[in-house]
């Protein structure tokens, strides 16, 4: 098995958190590798809200303009209550200030966020290693030796766990996960194309615990590109 001694940081998890950290470390001249057990990048819309502070981080990394070009503002919600549809503003539109230059949440599906960050990593000379899982690690006073699913042992100064709620890093260190799972309170997100709905509303059916979220710059079945089109179907708890 190969032994590497020239890695400063090994990042487990190539989602938005791990990719953002890796980009910041790379631009500071550190040696970084990013591994992810998934075979490829996440393909759904899942985490769609880019918060104001995150947009400042993206600006610092030089990718905010690209994120804004591929995203858009949150639309009004349309609450379907039987035959009546009531409008509801999910997100208050705020004015930019010197201390909060990007005060409004950006609607950007996660697969586009990941792609933006991964292109940044490639410009910085790093490619995410998909299909490579972290199987274990040993820590000593000088750093960490990690064992990958490829059989490779990677020696680094630090190991960062950015591998989600079921984090292998967190589990191996014995760190707890605050909170508990309530199986009666679930959210199911289905990405699809929906006909017959207006494209300027986040449609919600509270009694059915369902909602159809329009994603920016989607393409309908006729091949038309729209500023916002219903391409995400969200099944969520009533009232959310």
Low-confidence stretches: 228-240
Distance between the termini: 50 Å
Mean pLDDT: 86
Report the sheet with the most strands, covering strand number, pairing sense and barrel closure: 6 strands, mixed
Question: H/E order of the elements?
Answer: EHEEHHEEEEHEEEEHEEEE
Q: Report the portion of residues in β strands.
A: 25-35%
Classify the helix fraction into a percent range. Answer: 10-25%
Class by SSE composition = alpha/beta
| Count of β-strands | 15
Structure write-up:
It is a single chain. This protein has a six-stranded mixed beta sheet with strand order 8-2-1-11-10-9. The chain has a six-stranded mixed beta sheet with strand order 6-5-13-14-15-12, with no helix packed on it. A three-stranded antiparallel beta sheet has the order 3-7-4. The N and C termini lie far apart (50 Å). A hairpin with a 4-residue loop joins strand 10 (143-148) and strand 11. The longest helix is centred in the middle third of the chain and has 14 residues, at 110-123. Helix 1 (16-27) runs parallel beside helix 4. The protein is α/β, with parallel strands linked by helices. It is 20% helix and 33% strand.
